[in-house]
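Thread title: Can someone regenerate the structure for this chain?

I was given the following input by a collaborator and told the matching structure tokens would be attached. They weren't. Posting the sequence so someone can regenerate them.
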Amino acid sequence: MANAQAGGQWYPPEWPGRIRALASGDLTPVTPKRAATVMLLKDTGPGAGPAVHMLRRRTSMAFAGGAYAYPGGGVDPRDDDRHVRWAGPSLDWWAGRLGVDRAGAQAIVCAAVRETYEEAGVLLAGPAPDAVVGDTTGADWEADRAALVARELSFAEFLDRRGLVLRSDLLGAWTRWITPEFEPRRYDTWFFVAALPEGQRTRNASTEADRTVWITAREAADGYDRGELLMMPPTIATLRQLTAYGTAAEALDAAPARDLTPVLASARLVDGEIVLSWPGHDEFTKHIPTGGAPS
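Best answer:
Regenerated them for you:
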């Protein structure tokens, strides 16, 4: 079971041993898989700041069980297998913004939109470049969503079959985190912000989550600080960043200027102990004695 050493920080008990193995050269890092996650926002009223849609991973999950997170997941290789109808900034613009090639940009943005639909039932697409789907409920929509989850249907095929345009203009790239080198499952994850489209509702459509909540960034951060809400470092870091904005629109407007330099934890040996740190995020620093528990 994961420890919560500082507030509600997710800290697996196997980390110290894996960090020592990495430092000694006995552990070879695995290549991270590309992924995308979306902070879906909606306004709550003056002074409260926007609420963000979060899901709690089932405690039975091998990775981050019980931790609160956003809808998201790995890139499906088929997400770049054909050109999709596209609204908003061009693929060239997105490639430059995300630091990848055109195919990679399409796959990452498609993953962000697809995972939001798979896990929250919210679809950032519409029948025209200036429209968005207003209702994604019903048996036919659910059949398509299930087919996407099962990878029986690619997202490009789904959009094409329904005549939908992917609304990349509804997304803002926010930050990028790479899973530490000592983790057995690694992801290179782009975090996006988006506002809940008018007429759509979130629901817990994920088999990996046992509950979902709409909660303001400040409330979620306070819950983490009290040790009541378990989170991984990128989740609480992005929540703290969102507290600066009064509305979803303000957060989206701020996204284009955000630095997307990847945040990657480093582990180094200092005076007989391992120091685990995330650049620019001192609150997550851990000091691990060579033969003891972290502090």
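The CA atoms of residues 49 and 244 lie 8 Å apart.
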